[in-house]
Design a protein that fits this description.
Layout: H1 3-20, E1 38-42, E2 45-48, H2 49-58, H3 66-88, H4 95-119, H5 126-135, E3 146-154, H6 157-169, H7 174-181, E4 192-196, H8 202-208, E5 220-222, E6 225-235, H9 243-273, H10 295-304
Antiparallel strand pairs: 1-2, 3-4, 3-6, 5-6
Helix pairs in contact: 1-4, 5-9, 9-10
Length: 306
């Protein structure tokens, strides 16, 4: 089995464990708002109200009903029982499984460190975005239709309907509503998602397909809340995308490049500081490997989660 396959499978296992180890929010009488209140227990492991609420945010197809909470709790119990049985049988000690666990832990920890590093990066300056656009304009051909969208994100269904009705009456109030009521991160106080397409944001694209410019969508449920969307502009396929259409994409590309540069520099620093050895005689001549990876390509794998 190749290292890439092992790594991807390990990451999938780890993600699955994280998603299945928490479940959907809410509790019956007696729990109150105490996140540490137990909902279920298997052996020494306790499933708390906080765990329950966290998973509701992961899969909020609709407001949680008692049946959702029961199903999620029973699923946690079942998975925990299976996990305990797997440990009893020594599955975690099998060489391939042990390697997958070790790889998954390593990649999760590296990812957390890289996220922490990225949080301290300076914001992308407008001049850097404009320079990147002018140097790479040919890469921004509009291959598909796009739509520019602004959004408001709220948690409560009743509030979502209030916002929707208010925007229908007065679309110009969107900026003020975003500032006061939105929990979304897009565009800071503007709620601007930039230009999206069917391939880049299929859920948003589907939600606004029947809307004209300055029209408002019904609340759309997503993992982080209820989204009310306004269409600001539409562009058909063909021609070169304007800077406004790709500004956010360029900013993301620049942040990714800076992150890669920072990671590469850190690896080189660690190579100089730490003790390591590559047994070249056991690898064969480097030139015989057409796909040989340098540090940058390895770090791109980490970034892509491959």
């Amino acid at each position: 089995m190749s290292c890439g396959i092992v790594r991807r499978r390990a990451q999938a296992m780890a993600l699955g464990a994280l998603l299945l180890g928490v479940a959907i929010g809410g509790c019956g009488r007696g729990c109150g708002n105490d996140a540490s209140a137990p909902v279920a227990k298997v052996g020494d492991e306790t499933f708390t109200l906080g765990d329950l609420q966290a998973a509701l945010r992961e899969t909020p197809s609709r407001p949680a009903a008692p049946e959702d909470r029961w199903n999620a709790t029973e699923q946690w119990v079942a998975r925990q029982l299976l996990y305990r049985e797997a440990l009893r049988r020594g599955v975690d000690e099998q060489p391939e499984v042990a390697l997958q666990i070790k790889t998954a832990v390593r990649e999760l920890v590296i990812g957390a460190m890289l996220d922490e590093m990225s949080r301290h990066q300076a914001a992308v300056a407008e001049r850097d975005i404009e320079r990147y656009y002018s140097q790479n304009a040919s890469a921004f051909r509009r291959r598909e239709a796009t739509v520019r969208v602004r959004e408001i994100v709220v948690d409560d269904p009743r509030e979502a309907q209030e916002v929707y009705s208010e925007l229908r009456r007065n679309p110009q109030s969107l900026g003020e509503i975003v500032r006061v009521r939105s929990t979304g991160m897009a565009g800071a106080e503007s709620g601007d998602l930039g230009y999206v397409s069917a391939s880049t944001s299929p859920e948003i694209w589907q939600a606004v397909q029947q809307l004209g410019v300055n029209q408002i969508s019904q609340p759309v449920r997503a993992s982080d809340g209820l989204h009310i969307l306004m269409v600001v502009d539409r562009r058909s396929a063909g021609g070169t995308q304007s800077l406004d259409e790709v500004r956010m994409e360029i900013a993301n590309r620049i942040r990714a490049m800076r992150r890669l540069e920072a990671m590469t520099a850190l690896v080189e620093e660690l190579k100089a500081r730490e003790s390591y050895k590559i047994y070249e005689d056991r690898l064969g001549p480097r030139t015989s490997y057409a796909g040989a990876q340098d540090t940058s390509s390895i770090l791109r794998d980490v970034e892509a989660g491959e």
